[in-house]
Each structure stands twice: as structure tokens, then as C-alpha cells.
Amino acid sequence: xxxxxxxxxxxxxxxxxxxxxxxxxxxxxxxxxxxxxxxxxxxxxxxxxxxxxxxxxxxxxxxxxxxxxxxxxxxxxxxxxxxxxxxxxxxxxxxxxxxxxxxxxxxxxxxxxxxxxxxxxxxxxxxxxxxxxxxxxxxxxxxxxxxxxxxxxxxxxxxxxxxxxxxxxxxxxxxxxxxxxxxxxxxxxxxxxxxxxxxxxxxxxxxxxxxxxxxxxxxxxxxxxxxxxxxxxxxxxxxxxxxxxxxxxxxxxxxxxxxxxxxxxxxxxxxxxxxxxxxxxxxxxxxxxxxxxxxxxxxxxxxxxxxxxxxxxxxxxxxxxxxxxxxxxxxxxxxxxxxxxxxxxxxxxxxxxxxxxxxxxxxxxxxxxxxxxxxxxxxxxxxxxxxxxxxxxxxxxxxxxxxxxxxxxxxxxxxxxxxxxxxxxxxxxxxxxxxxxxxxxxxxxxxxxxxxxxxxxxxxxxxxxxxxxxxxxxxxxxxxxxxxxxxxxxxxxxxxxxxxxxxxxxxxxxxxxxxxxxxxxxxxxxxxxxxxxxxxxxxxxxxxxxxxxxxxxxxxxxxxxxxxxxxxxxxxxxxxxxxxxxxxxxxxxxxxx
Length: 593
Ligand code: AGP
Hints:
alpha/beta, Glutamine Phosphoribosylpyrophosphate, subunit 1, domain 1, Rossmann fold, 3 domains, eight-stranded antiparallel sheet, 25% strand, binds 2-deoxy-2-amino glucitol-6-phosphate
């Protein structure tokens, strides 16, 4: 969701750093952007704009800004519409702040500040923070003290960075609940505070993640120094690790979009996951598994349930994190709880994990972002090594999550990684065929994705991708469930993507497909080469749209189907003229409930 960057530097062209970092934060999802800086005459200036960072960049590039201290933000609207007035930074009497998260007591704070004579210009909860700091300065505190006092008055989750024009050599940050990362440039001339390490790719080679309740204060004298205070305001050192996000990860490398680049990495990612996988859970004692996640990560868990129950004969429950948290779940110390998250920051998944940890059960985090909150708090961490995923729609991370879960419970030597790789590559090499089919389904008023067994979670993933990228209503269903209600929707305007590889469920899914055809529904059949010989016999001479994938063994087969449905969703969105990497209303990292 929102993104933060800030810099205190000896160089006076910090606006370039701010803008380039905001561009790298675009992937998180946002609808407005802004910067504030203290200029060469120690005056606080602010520039904000609605829409893309490019709009802000166009303004900034014409200004020739000279400044050593600045903050920047990409805002994903929560309190108040996506307008310039609501965009960050918020300012008050020379104080400027940017904020990620939600201030739960902002109404009370705002009322109090209004009573003291303040006026508010935005509808946001964040503006109260700037007012509060300015108020605490006005009471005679220095900037650092006023910041500390203000932070202590806030209830909620947040990452906040603040600057003050009268103390242009100080940069302050604090975090509770929302991620925050700090780093020095390699020449030690610039210090950065950001919401994630991707913002600092090319700016800081080494970074430190702040812990819950930490406050960071950077000061510039004859050199740049910073100190981190923990929640008891005691000076602490946090681990310095190398920034895992390289500039290469956040470039398109010649592809039209990040999403296409990331789909084309799926075979490489599968190989990397396999080669690096050395985790084992043999020492952990459990007699069942509970998987908790959101969105695509949840579907990865659902898919893994089929494998784990079949291969390891262990009972698996899979739950949506936001539901798990609020239904008073019956927890057990005999279960292994696995939390899946690409970003490692999804607030519902994180809070669900805290609930389980508090209870005293074992927690495993399967995450793609190193140093993320879930990774830091889990008892046991499995890294999915998909590499930085920039497209808001999760693609290569899904491959990495599912394969990691498979490897965790299966014998590695029984997984034919070459078959997985080659079948995905086959799909990628034939990407134009998916583009061709996407042209046909793109104008459908609604879509169904159906599948049986492991193909059911894949159907759910296919439908989610269509929804988020094409803004078309799409539903994933178990093939056998269609006639228990959804078939009433079928007519000649509805396309159904039927996922029916030539496996033990093939005939059953084909017969469900026939039920749809009999009601004039349109079908796109995703199947495998071996099915060709049987299709005529099963479906007669019906002229069906078919995509043939390579046959693979039952464990390896899902991977190339996943790539296929990702390509289909990609092209459908592209042909509708949508922004594939930044679909409307969505955020890459969902840090509010
Ligand atoms: C996937 O394409 C979505 N953008 C979304 O459903 C995502 O998977 C979900 O928000 C969970 O995110 P996480 O994996 O970072 O926790």
C-alpha cells in the first residue's frame, strides 16, 4: 500500500533520490504522490499530485530543487478520497510528515487539536500527526522530544517519518505495525528511511529493518550518524544486512511490463526454488497442518493441501487470514501453522500469526521478502526465492510458494524439476497462443474457471487474476459444483475456462464441460496433448477453443497450467487496455485490515 522514502544528505540533489525511490515504490499500489523538503533557505516546501509518480516527476524536474533533507510518499487512499489535499506529506508550522498505516485515535486527537484552535485541511487521519508534533514543539520541546511525545500519543499501526524546517539536520522515523527500513549510502553521504528495501535499491547496499516500537533519529554534523531507540527508548543496534533488492530486480529488462517479465521468470524461479531448497521439518512434532494466508497465497495453500494430504497423509486446513483472526479459532499445539505471504507484510496474516504465537504453537512463515515482518516474527522461516515481484498481480511468487510447499512435504528426489521447467518453458514459448485466446474471452461479461482436484485452486487463482487485472467478474469453481447453482448463470455471453489436463479427473471435468456447452456457454478448454485422442469421442465434433499443454506426471502437471492461466490473464488485461502492473484500487502489500 502506501510507500515512504526520506533522505538526509550532504548532497543537495536529494529530489532525484526521492523521485527514483517513489518510482520503485509504485508497485505497492497508490493513487497520489508527494514530496516535502527543506530548501537552501531553510524553508519547507511541498509538492503533491494525484495519479502517477510521473505527474510529480514532471513538476519536480522543472524546479531545480536544492535540498539536503526531504520526505516522499505514495498514498493508497484509506481515510478520504485520492485528492491532492489528502495526499502526503502533511505539514503544519514547518513540520512535515509522511505516514503509512492507520491512526485509530485520530478522531479524538483531531477534536482535541481543533479545540486548541488548529484547522485541518484534509480528510486524513495522518494530518493529525503533523499537527500534534507542531503542537508539542510549540509547547517548548525540541523536535526530537516533540516527535517522541507525539508518537506516544498515537494508537494504531504506523510507519512515520518527520522533518522540521527549523532543524534541517535531523530526520526522524518511528514504526509500530508497518514496516520501516533504514540504510546509509555506500559513500556514507546520505541516510535513508523507507517503507521497504526496494525503495532503496541503488541507494543503500546495506539496510536494517526496524523492530516494533523502534524510533530512529539521524543527525548531520560533520558526518551523518543515526541511532535507533527501542520501544523502551533504549539505544539498540539492529542487524545490518545486505539489501536483497537489486536495481535489476526492479527494472523491466526489456519486457513491456513487470508482470510479463515475472511470468517469463516462472521456469527459472521453479529451478531456483528446487536447487536452493534445503529446509526440513523433521524435528518439528505435529499431527496436522493449518495454512493461513490471503489472496493468491491462500490459493497456494489450497493447492498444497491436495499434495500434502496425498503425499504425506497429514490432515491440512487452509484458512483466509482475516476470517481466522476474527472467528475465535480453536488452536492446537499439535498443529503446525504455516503462514504464506509474498510480501511478508499482509496485516491479517501477520496478526493471525501473532495470535498463534501467543497461544504457543509453532509458526512457519513462507515469505518472499527477506526481512519482512512475518519473516522476523515466525519461529521458522522458509524463503521462496522468487526474487522481487513488482507486478501487483502475484505470478512467479505463486510458483515459488506452491513448489516450496511441495518440497517441504515430499521427497525432493521424487520431484522431477526438469519436467516442471520444460513444461513451463513450453507454455512460455507458445505465449502467442494464449494471447490469441485472450482476444476471444476479453469481452465476455463474466467468466468461470472450473477444475477438479489440484485444478480447483488453480481455477480460483485464474479467476482472481482475471478479476484483478481485467475488472471482469470471474469465479473459480470446482467442476462438480457448477450444477449446484452457478450453471443458472451460463448463457452464450459467459465464457468458462475449463482446466482439464489428461489426468484421473479428465473425463469427469469433460462431462461438466459438456453440461455448460449444452446450455450454450462458451468454453476455453485448457488440456494436455494426450487428451487430443479422446476429445472427439467425448465432445463430438463441437468446435471448441482448446489450449494444449505438455503432459507431465500428476505432481508436476499443475506448474505449467499455472503459467498458462497467468499468461491468459495477462493478455486479457493488456487487450482491454488496462495498466497490467498497477491494476486499479489494488496494492501489492496490504498493510491495513
Ligand atoms: C495476487 O495477485 C493479489 N494481488 C493478492 O491476492 C495477494 O496475493 C494477497 O494480497 C496476499 O498478499 P501476500 O502474499 O503479500 O500476503
